[in-house]
């Protein structure tokens, strides 16, 4: 488990925490970024699969 500085109050907060325990700054946007990466990862995999099928 690692720590990261809060962008609002610079308090060291666990990366597991959903919000800063000191000032209450939410870190929920990180989950949205992860979901976005997963979504585009799936889209990329589908595009690659279509390209492979079309080649053969
Ligand atoms: Zn904070």
Q: Helix segment count?
A: 1
Low-confidence stretches: none
- Major sheet characteristics: 2 strands, antiparallel
- Secondary-structure-based class equals mainly alpha
H/E series: EEH
What percent of residues are in strands?
A: 5-15%
Spatial order of the strands in the main sheet? 1-2
Question: Would you give an account of this structure?
Answer:
There is one protein chain. The protein has one helix and two strands, in the order E-E-H. The protein has 56 residues and is mostly helical. It has one domain. Strand 1 and strand 2 form a beta hairpin. The radius of gyration is 18 Å and the shape is rod-shaped. Zinc ion (ZN) is lined by residues 6, 8-9, 11, 20, 22-23, 25.
Quick recap of the structure?
This protein is mostly helical and 56 residues long. It contains one helix and two strands.
Fill in the keyword field for this structure:
mainly alpha; single chain; two-stranded antiparallel ribbon; binds zinc ion; rod-shaped
């Amino acid at each position: 488990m690692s720590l990261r500085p809060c962008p609002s109050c610079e308090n060291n907060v666990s990366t597991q925490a959903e919000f800063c325990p000191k000032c209450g700054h939410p870190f929920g946007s990180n989950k949205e970024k992860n979901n976005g990466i997963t979504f585009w990862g799936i889209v990329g995999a589908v595009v690659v699969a279509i390209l492979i099928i079309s080649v053969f």
